[in-house]
Design goal:
This protein is of the alpha/beta class. Helices cover 39% and strands 21% of the residues.
């Protein structure tokens, strides 16, 4: 899932029907690890995004993962409890963190390229308790005055809600396990791992729905 699919990639055999499945929006799974709970004051420390595609059988699947560690912005709050929870040492020399604006550029560029390939008009954020990740993403965009944000500014898909509907479980680990996927607690709370597991959960729910009720609008 680490391969970068771009407009120049000869493997870019894309089923553009994904643009019809979600009313012109491209679902992209996002997970953000932070230095606290307040998007306005607390640092964004790691971000991962999983681009979803649709195969020739109209089943969506995780196609590529993009991630980076992020430098805490100047004056950002770093709550020790949050750092203990996600295991991030903001000052670790091997983190290779980059400034927020550069991080956004790195994550957004392949998403914009995927929009061009699929014919989708905008990306829509998929997250577990999506309001949290959307809040930090939007705060970073505003803080850095980033002009080319591919995401819809307020609409999203929340797998906590969808997991509750499909499996009666709202906790990510429990919903993933209920869907038949495995869970590694030692890898959890990494942005990459949580984003990829959220992507698996979202794809499972959408594909099960479509198998039962057909492609929407047809």
């Amino acid at each position: 899932m680490s391969e970068e699919f771009t407009a120049e990639n000869p493997l870019a055999d894309v089923n553009t029907r994904i643009s019809k499945r979600f009313r012109g929006y491209l679902p992209v799974v996002v997970d953000i690890e932070t230095g606290g709970l307040n998007a306005a004051t607390d640092a964004m420390l790691q971000i991962a995004a999983v681009v979803l595609r649709m195969d020739r059988q109209d089943r969506i699947y995780p196609a590529a993962t993009y991630s980076t560690h992020v430098e805490a912005f100047e004056g950002a709050n770093l709550d020790p409890k949050s750092l203990e929870f996600n295991g991030i040492d903001p000052d670790h020399p091997l983190r290779m963190a980059i400034p927020e604006k550069e991080a956004l550029r790195k994550i957004f560029r392949p998403i914009r390229e995927e929009l061009g390939l699929t014919g989708c008009k905008r990306a829509i954020l998929v997250g577990h308790n999506a309001f949290f990740d959307m809040g930090f993403l939007n705060a970073a965009v505003e803080r850095t005055n980033f002009k080319r944000n591919p995401f819809h500014p307020f609409s999203c898909f929340d797998t906590a809600t969808l997991g509750g509907l499909a499996y009666g479980q709202t906790v990510l680990r429990r919903a993933v396990e209920a869907s038949g996927e495995g869970w590694n607690s030692r890898e959890a709370h990494s942005a990459i791992y949580d984003a990829e597991k959220t992507a698996d959960l979202f794809c499972n729910i959408v594909n099960r729905w479509d198998a039962a009720f057909g492609f929407p609008g047809e």
